[in-house]
Amino acid sequence: MHFDFHARRESTAVGKDVTPEMVEYIIDMVHPDYIQCDCKGHMGYSSYPTKVGYRAPGIARDTLTIWREVTARRGVALFLHYSGIWDDMAIKHHPDWARVDEQGHEDVHMVSAFGPYVDELMIPQLKELNDRYSVDGVWVDGDCWAVHHDYRAEVIAAFQDQTGIQEIPHAPTDAYYYEFTQFCREGFRTYLRHYIDTLHQHNADFQIASNWAFSSKMPEPVSADVDFLSGDFWLQNSVNSARLEARCLRHQGLPWDLMAWSFGGQHVLGDNEEDFSTKSVSQLQREAAIVLALSGGFQLYFQQDRNGAIFPWQMQVAREVAQFCRARQDVCHHAEPIPQIALYYAGSTFYHQATALFEAHDGALQPLQGVLQILLDNQYSTDILMEHQLKGHMAEYPIIVVPEWSQLEPDQIENLLAYAHNGGKLLLIGPATAFLFATALQVDFLDVSHDQQAIYLEYEGSLARMKTATAQVQLQEPAQAFGCWYASNNMTLPSTTAASITAYGRGKIAATYFNVGKRYLEATTTVVRDFIQALVHELFPEPLVTVTGSHLVDVALNRFGSKLAINLVNTAGPHADIHVHVFDEIPAVGPLTISIRCEEQPSRIMCQPENFALPFTWSEGRAMVTLPRLDIHVVLIVE
């Protein structure tokens, strides 16, 4: 359970309605493993009587004493929500702590990761929270995702001294912008390691998570001593956010969780007005299911009242969501993924393409996300693997899909080709990615259009319009054409090769000569979905599990002890509609037919958490089972 309210100048009665009974009520209703509550938000006001930082204007009661006393007595861990890089009050009192933007202006929100803020305020305050309240840890918000390029004089001087580059870039099109971006990224890593190491030296048991560190926004090996990984996925379109973010955290080698905002709506209407409504139980249960199916922990975020109290009626919502999670904990938490499809996240390429330090507001991740959604919409169990995670593990995956990365490092290309040569199946999405493998694909590129152009993709007699980048190619032996597209909505005209498949060593390499991912997010069509499914099937005809009966089902395959766990999550309903803030109907799907490849006949197939056996047939190494109805989430345990 996560609570925060980001104290402001108007916070003049903090703690007025916070009581031990309130905290007891939360625990009695929800039975959480841990609670996170507010201590310092983005405005920089502390919501407790700090002696180090800047207190909210009015503190009627020390809320942290209450939270800690009750949680300790009830055996519930207590963590604190603390805003890191984003601290308005720190800058108001110390303008020299601010980062400096591209125009030479001091930022009024973000402190410099290179400056004295971390030593003069952040670390002393975190020590104060540890020593005074004996809290279990801190969830640092406003950290990697809030850091920006820093043009402070000492930062520029250090960059020039370290790199020898004297020309300072100010825009993505300037020379050395990537080098300066990397320098600023390393500045954040140094800041992160510094405060974590210092706090751990102070108290080795003090647990620290930096929100979104080493996630999709920071796609690299874990290089700081964080105790767990965490993030809060999107306010709207949360199901698709969870699908992406959970897969990016899962393989980083640390405990992890994801936080759902318990409310839907818009961040700001104007004049700092928030247009939020509490989500329904079923809405939040489905958001939880996406995370549970991928074996992660789950947080629920509820806002506190301006005085620090909760809204009691919301705990009934939390209670039902928590019961949903608890019912699945024994068959989900810490389950190990079974390799099927690996979707390749080239973190080094992301760092070249993204204009922000650790964010993707510019759309740099849309191609990856779009390809992920196509694969999930075709019921493929899919993992996202960053380059460092796949190193040494490529052979475990029957197929690797490389989305639309415009560049790859030479060693990445070499490793992917070696994987295919040794028997792996490699699917390349988009002309820019395919061009990097032109020799292996046995194709000549005749014309490449980096601009968006309208084409009409054909599949099984239907056409779908796509506005996307394309390439025209000439195939050499032994490359085989797969599918075609037309220049207009007319199949009597000449067509162009859409994709190709080529034998390569003991494996195969396939490629599409049009971009897919971003377009699928913006204009989903069944033709594109089915075309990619057919292409994947050519490379990967025998997945461990196939599910038919609905495309609105996510499949996640886990190993639970010696048993196979088949997670099925219903993704129907308006969860991606930005105009729908709250909905309480998730249309059931089914019946679903599940085909399971088994070396031996299973003794039984149990449906959890309902705990009943499903009848099945077994023939020629496959068990066939029918699930009559899927409401939100079930796990089929094959014994």
Automatic annotation (TrEMBL):
<dbReference type="InterPro" id="IPR029062">
    <property type="entry name" value="Class_I_gatase-like"/>
</dbReference>
<dbReference type="Pfam" id="PF01120">
    <property type="entry name" value="Alpha_L_fucos"/>
</dbReference>
<dbReference type="InterPro" id="IPR057739">
    <property type="entry name" value="Glyco_hydro_29_N"/>
</dbReference>
<protein>
    <recommendedName>
        <fullName>Glycoside hydrolase family 29 N-terminal domain-containing protein</fullName>
    </recommendedName>
</protein>
<dbReference type="InterPro" id="IPR017853">
    <property type="entry name" value="GH"/>
</dbReference>
<feature type="domain" description="Glycoside hydrolase family 29 N-terminal">
    <location>
        <begin position="34"/>
        <end position="152"/>
    </location>
</feature>
